[in-house]
Amino acid sequence: MMTILLLVLAAIPLLPMLIAERWDWWQAWVVAAVFSLGFVISRVLADRRNPGILYERRNYLRHEDTQRWDTVLSPLTAFGPIVILVVAGFDARLGWRGDFSLAVEVGGLALVLGGYVLGSWALVENAWFSGTVRVQEERGHAVVGTGPYRAVRHPGYLGSLMAAVGLPLALGSVWAFVPAVAYGAVVVARTALEDRFLHANLAGYVEYAGRVRRRLLPGIW
């Protein structure tokens, strides 16, 4: 467990700089700081508000009632951002990259930060924010309609999409948009499947969906 935690907090955030062998890359340092601090702060707040949620997330692969399709999509959504960081690192190392203006890179950093804040808010607000799609009957699973869930039904996924779009911009990597687009497609597919599953299996979700009409993008879908 400690090894995994060190990877999440140290090795993974530093991947672009490790691959590119560039330690003066301030944009990558900002991304690493947002990633690491966002992870720690969100987990501390979530555990304080909803004791048991971190245990649920830590052991998500052990649940036998996880939907079969999510045994594929869950790892893809977990590792997708890592692929974006890796490609951005090789882009910088091998000189594939095009030049983005400072304004575009700062805008990308704002998207990354906004995405992590939104995703963290969803985690803290939702006591059943699991790593896989299932109904947590043993934990009294219920519909959450507060906080960001008043605007869209899957704000955690929206936050991850914002960060995925922001990473290539922040790191000045055109090629990183390739895994970012693929990641976005996986997130949209997972959102649609999870929403359909919750409609059919979670008490009160149909009524909630009637109040909050958008799954992922406010005013669009």
- What's the total number of strands? 0
Q: How can the largest sheet be summarized?
A: none
Q: Give the proportion of residues in helices.
A: 55-70%
Low-pLDDT regions:
none
| Rounded average pLDDT | 92
Task: Tell me the Rg in angstroms.
Answer: 18 Å
CATH class placement: Mainly Alpha
Count helical runs.
Answer: 9
When the domains are counted, the total is: 1
Distance between the termini: 38 Å
Instruction: Give helix and strand order, one letter per element, not per position.
Output: HHHHHHHHH
**Do you know the CATH architecture?**
Up-down Bundle
**What is CATH's topology name?**
Four Helix Bundle (Hemerythrin (Met), subunit A)
Measured by DSSP, the beta-strand proportion falls in: under 5%
Q: Indicate the overall shape.
A: globular
Structural class by helix and strand composition: mainly alpha
The quaternary structure here is single chain
